Amino acid sequence: RGDAVVVKVQRPGIEHTVRTDLEALRVVARWIMRYERIRRRANVPALMEEFAETLWEELDYISEADNARRFGRMFADDERVCIPKVYDELSSGRIIVLENVESIKIADLAALDEAGIDKAELADRLLDVYFHQIFKEGIFHADPHPGNLFVRPRADIAWTPEAGPRPYELVFVDFGMVGRIDLTLKENLKRVLIGVSQRDARGLTEAYRKMGFFLPSADIERIVEAQAIVLDQLWGRDLLTMAQPDPRELAELSREFRDLLYEFPFQVPQNFIYLGRALGILSGLAAQLDPAINPWYQVERYGRELIELEEAQEMGREMIAEWAKPFLSVPAQLQRVLAAAEGGRLRFQSSPDRLTTQQLDILNRRLRGVQVAMVAAAGLISGTLLFLDKRRREEE
């Protein structure tokens, strides 16, 4: 058909090599656990098994093709992002054929400048797309190194240098390593984002505690104190400044919280390893693209959006509960009728008395009211969510 494609072929014998290497690493992991300071903070054999599971998944090209298709659906309506098409009929467990979307590597700053790409906007887009994956989709590309991210100028849009920055797509490739976030971690990550955006040291620390970042012996109040100072000192700074802190500030923090540094009551949760790695790579890329980037803008915007969404959902729940009260307050006589029916003592009259007729009329009106109320509540919630989504797109 003349399509430009990329063919990824698994090297013969790779499974045997990987199996041998993993066994050697398992021996090392068990040996490391003999050290008490390490044993207190990490279950190294468990981390090793998670690494092994991810590695085997990377070698399964059927799984990689599934991941690519899922990300394709995720960003199908987002013109800012490009996911390569999978040629299913040509792919298998050991071969995967993908659309060739290779273009400018995201770390090739000179090529980006030559192509007319706004690097600061690219850094913002990169963070925004990852925030979407993590906080809204619960699945993220876990290997965002420069070889897996490209920038492709839009060929379908006419452009001249005089027109300003060039339109482009952020391209993702290689979906062998994908991180998944369960509902509990996702909720706690939202709490982290909201805590940072509100500069709420206690809320942020509590979210970290629920995620498992602290040892049981940790002094939570001291951590809250330290977190408050760190938030106050870092808020509003660009990534480059945060990466190169003032030695005097570090010395002052070290003196003030020497007990925390000595005890070091922190650990790395097993389910945070790949997310932490991805975020570390991303922050480096974003700072490289735009040393003056202010990540707090993204954090504050997403935090505000999550708060508004939660408030809308809570309002919807309260309205449904309020409108459902008439349905829940069933007339006492009807309850007696139902009890009689259950006990086999129900007798029917051809002409119900006036009180029964009134009660049934009341129930009928209330049921109709509940139906209308629930439809209205659903419409209100949907409208609220659509409004928030529309505003998010306008802000972007």
Indicate the topology:
Blueprint: E1 5-9, H1 14-32, H2 36-41, H3 44-58, H4 61-74, E2 81-82, E3 95-99, E4 104-105, H5 109-115, H6 119-137, E5 139-141, E6 149-153, E7 168-172, E8 178-180, H7 183-197, H8 201-211, H9 220-234, H10 239-243, H11 247-256, H12 258-263, H13 273-289, H14 295-328, H15 332-342, H16 354-395
Helix pairs in contact: 1-3, 6-13, 7-8, 7-14, 8-9, 14-16
Report what the structure shows.
The protein is of the alpha+beta class. The protein has two domains: 1-293, no CATH class; 308-395. The protein is built from 16 helices and eight strands. The chain has helices at residues 14-32, 36-41, 44-58, 61-74, 109-115, 119-137, 183-197, 201-211, 220-234, 239-243, 247-256, 258-263, 273-289, 295-328, 332-342, 354-395; strands at residues 5-9, 81-82, 95-99, 104-105, 139-141, 149-153, 168-172, 178-180. Helix 7 runs antiparallel to helix 8 (201-211). The longest helix has 42 residues, at 354-395.
Annotation keywords:
396 residues, alpha+beta, 2 domains, 4-stranded mixed beta sheet, two-stranded antiparallel ribbon, 16 helices
Question: How would you summarize what this structure contains?
Answer:
It is built from 16 helices and eight strands.
Mean pLDDT comes to 77
* Low-confidence runs: 366-392
Structural class: alpha+beta
Number of structural domains: 2
C-alpha Rg (nearest Å): 28 Å
Strand order of the largest sheet: 2-7-6-4
Q: What does the overall shape look like?
A: globular
Describe the main β-sheet briefly: 4 strands, mixed
Helix proportion: 55-70%
What is the straight-line distance between the termini?
37 Å
Strand-and-helix sequence, N→C?
EHHHHEEEHHEEEEHHHHHHHHHH
Number of helices: 16
In total, the number of strands is: 8
How would you name the oligomeric state of the polypeptide chains in this document? single chain
Portion in beta strands? 5-15%
